Amino acid sequence: MNEKTRNFLVNRFRGYYSQAEIHLPPEHISREWGFISFSDSSETFMKRHIAFGSEGEITDYLKGIAPAHAYYSVAYYEYPSAPKMKEKNWQKADLIFDIDSDHLPGKITSYADMLEKGKKETFKLMEFLLDDFGFDEKDVHIVFSGGRGYHCHITDPSVLHLESPERREIVDYVS
């Protein structure tokens, strides 16, 4: 990307982050954060293992670097900024459902069509989770995945400490 384009995008994103109401995930200080910046090189890389001590630190960081992409872990850690996974000390994790629209059956004719199809499936999933599992709507968070669909995060305390076998049983039931 040339410098003029990069500067334009950074300024536009900086303007967005300075005015937007940022909705942070629950217990945001216990999560690892990762960011992809606008780069003038052809290589894209994520800066990971970042942690914040407060909501203000996160919003200041977003306003300062104006990232192209911002990500947070679904897991909660004692030491989210530790450079190695073993050192982070996993505590719990959201239950996640990933709807990749291009993996759904049927023909897709455009990107907008793909996202609309994913949105419909995400709403069906949410209704299922609320009705069959009894999750409260405040514990179900839907976010755009950044490309092909949506992620559904369940932050209900009853699922946060589940291990892989229990999570697999839930996926099997939903499937």
Annotate the secondary structure layout.
Elements: H1 3-19, E1 33-36, E2 47-50, H2 55-65, E3 69-72, E4 75-77, H3 85-88, E5 90-93, E6 95-100, H4 111-132, E7 140-144, E8 149-154, H5 164-174
Antiparallel strand pairs: 1-2, 1-3, 4-5, 6-8, 7-8
Overall description:
Helix content is 37%, strand content 21%. The protein has 175 residues and is α+β, with helices and mostly antiparallel strands. It contains five helices and eight strands. The termini are far apart. Helix 1 packs antiparallel against helix 2 (55-65). It folds into two domains: 3-91, no CATH class; 94-174. The mean pLDDT is 92. The radius of gyration is 18 Å and the shape is globular. Strand 7 (140-144) and strand 8 (149-154) form a beta hairpin. The protein has a three-stranded antiparallel β-sheet with strand order 2-1-3, with no helix packed on it. The protein has a three-stranded antiparallel β-sheet with strand order 6-8-7. It has a two-stranded antiparallel sheet with strand order 4-5.
Strand content: 15-25%
Structural class: alpha+beta
The number of distinct helices, counting runs of at least 4 residues, comes to 5
Q: Which descriptor suits the 3D outline?
A: globular
Number of domains: 2
Radius of gyration: 18 Å
Largest beta sheet: what is the strand line-up?
2-1-3
The parts where pLDDT drops under 50 for at least 5 residues are none
Distance between the termini: 42 Å
Task: Please give the share of residues in helix.
Answer: 25-40%
Q: Tell me how many strands there are.
A: 8
The major beta sheet can be summarized as:
3 strands, antiparallel
Strand/helix succession = HEEHEEHEEHEEH
